[in-house]
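dumping this here before i forget
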Amino acid sequence: MNKISNAKKQILSFTGLLISILFFITTNAYADMKLYEGEPSVDDCRKCHGDDEHHPHPLLQKSVTQVHHELVSKPIKGLFNGYYDSVAPGDISSGSYECVSCHSYDGDTPIVEKDCLSCHPKNSLISRPRPDIKNVHHATLTFEKRDCVSCHRFLNPQKWPRKRGMKIYKDEPNEAECRRCHGDDNSQPHPALKEPNADRHHDLIGDPIEGFYDGFFDTVAPGDISSGEYECLSCHIYENSNYIAPHDCMKCHIRRSVISRPRPDVKNVHHNTQTFRDKNCNGCHRFY
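structure:
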């Protein structure tokens, strides 16, 4: 009995240690991309959204008052399905936004609720950008364009210096920088990469060379591309009965195809990934 009890204690102790480690890794991995230094507050909200007359963030074209008034008669999404966990502090019985949903009245004078957090609770403002987590800041055109820096740098310029921004390279892209994530023929350091670099390239055999036709991601191949499809000789040199593999990534993946910002009209091979489609920006930008 004592042996079983001790074994249970060891398992519980190990489980607790593992949870602590995972919590530490997770919280620290995302610390640099927080919009807030501590807990979100009204003062923090005002840094971007301003007041009735001003909207400091350059991407906000309307005052916070205009934005809220345009909600009148629209469904209160948070009331129905917890969408972004945002509701309204007043009368929401109709299910649509009305004046009394946000305003109370002193006689005929509307009283304005000034506490942003009474409608937008913490979890609707700071959640990480994952498909299964809802964050009102990620329900924006800016986020849909994957223009992360426009918000994250606006409040924390010291964390995202203009000369570097969210680049995944310390300086210019080069072979050594690529290997930090993509590894060599036998390893793939980045956890999102499921097979070695060589296997990933061999999987292309028979596929059309997209860059050859339309400049897609500006990626081509250094060898024979006359067929328009990837073949062994598209990348390898055949010499003395051996296939010699090129190891200079930049011969195929030119600079603009690996560093362009994430905009719909700019092509970047790193943004043609499931990680990017999952809006998991930190999966790459925090890795290196």
